[in-house]
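[Meeting: bench + compute handoff]

Bench side (C.D.) handed over the final construct sequence. Compute side (W.E.) agreed to return the predicted structure before the next meeting so the bench team could plan truncations. Sequence as handed over:
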Amino acid sequence: MEERIETKTNEDLEGKSGGALETPARNLPSTEFVKVEKNLASLGFFTPSSKRLRNAQEKSFTVTTVTDGQRLELKGTIIPSAKYGLPITADQDKWIALCKILTDIIRKEGRVTNPVSFTSAEILRLLHKHRHSGKNYREIEEWLDVLFSTTIFSEGVVYLAGEKRRVKDRYRVFDRAVSFGKELSDGKVADKNYVWFSDWQIQNINNNHLLPIDLEAYRELKNHIAKALVPLLQIWLYATRREGVYEKRYDELCQFLNIQRYRYESLIKRTLGPSLDELKQFGYLADWQIERTSDGENYKIVFYHGEKFHRDRRTRESSKLNANGAATISERDQQSRPLPRDHRSEGRLTSVSVPKHFDPMLVSELTRRGISEKKAHELLANLKPGQEKELGRQLEHAEQLVKESQVPVTNPAGFIIRLIEYNTPVPDGFETKAQRTVRAERERQEGERRAAKEARQQLEWEYDEYRDAETDHYIEVNAATFEALKDAKWKEDREQFTFTTESTARMAARFEMQKQITFLTFEKFLERKKQGTDLFLKPVGPSPAAELAAVEPEIEDATAEIEVGNTPSDTAASDTQHETAMEPLFPQKEPLAEVLLAADEIREADMQKPTPGAAGQNAPVQSTQESPLPEPMMIELVSDPPPNEFSGASAEGIA
């Protein structure tokens, strides 16, 4: 089947749109649609990759479209940033999160205006990323630089919804982007991230040239190629919604995704298989196949429309129908459900003798829809092989057609009889009442599971905040100890490494100080939180073992010189530890600080001792500080003292 993408430039995927973005249907609370600008979604702007493609060259592609019966080939080129390369999957994630913020703005204000402000924490929250990681915040700043510096060369691939025409020009997503902490035009420091969308983006967003994406399902995807295909499939599957299948040449798909092209089917399956299987698992696809093209020189990927595509489309249409207060079936959809040709040529089925007994449930389902009991038996007697299993779905589908028909059906029973006689097939995406009930229950359980997961993650973040607050408070109380540890670490790093910074030593000292704190366990933290106890900035007692382990070797050498007589006794030490354990607030002086203070006194005393070489030149300096280690007095005893000394005093007088 030849590839055919039929587009209408003044319509979105749901047809003509008359207003802002729709809200998710009430019967599907877990589905959260985000509208993304359609040009970026359809051009393969984002390349599936987990790493920056800094050496990537320009990315060229061709789009085939049919407009007013004419087949057009449109070309485009994406020029990457010289510093960061092409936009990748992580950039697409953040872009979709930003589109969620734009969706909320449109719902509240009706349109988007420049500049658009948002915090990095908002983006991380929407992506379920950790909001206490500096790396994640740096990645957001880098993402803004990537979208600002990437250029699109359009040779008709960019469509301006406001002017309803395709253009040839150069475009960027942002005209300007200012990250948090940078200077704005008025000289103020930005308290948020600010972006100024390009005119073509603002025009398309406000004219609803948008594409719906299920944010919840998208976040659950793990494969990069699967994420890149989600917006493309929304366009491709909608264009072939009547056929139920879409084909894409493998070489063109590789061009769109900017992935390596292989010659052998086994390598193609190894590359695309995991991502396509994941899309099948989530319901985007019912199945997929790799086949040879008609000329036998290439491969093509065959995509079969999945249940999620039909379900999401019905959800959006239901939202529109509820908003308009009426339910209709478009003429185009009526034409998409033609009766089988062979059945039309046969005409009505002839009557046969009616058996006496049929399933009472089937007879009841027919009669409650206005069909006589005699006609019900006749229909059941002439069912096609296997039709009996599908009869319940056919009846519910026929009822839906009657309710949604734009032209009132004057004889609903006759209409249902006709559909049953011709064995009109039911669309694959149609859900019966029982199937909707099962799906709603499954989605409810899935929503509860996700809510529990998010609640657990939020508690873990709060536990991290509690530990950080306790550490900050402990360092504040023991500032002198922290500075001493920091200086010792910095000195050690300078001796071992050619390059080091004070911030590195500060982080190491903070880590050592944390070892001295006895934190609540996560389970105890949850228990206290349930009791409503304020857990932040509460004093905690230091761990004696961790306190001793934190003393550096250099400090241990100094403390070894302290006189044993000045060391507290075991009893005093025991009393001190007992008082520390019982004290609810932080002690004024930690044992570690006393050790550092004693070491400093020893060093000062050593510096004030006179050297032996200078004893004869300078008079000894009387120290104002008592030496912690006094030298013993040396006395020499002799039997007969020299006659000229001590004025003839006796040895006993000397002694």
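W.E. noted at the follow-up: DSSP finds 25 helices and twelve strands in the chain. C.D. will use this when planning the next construct.
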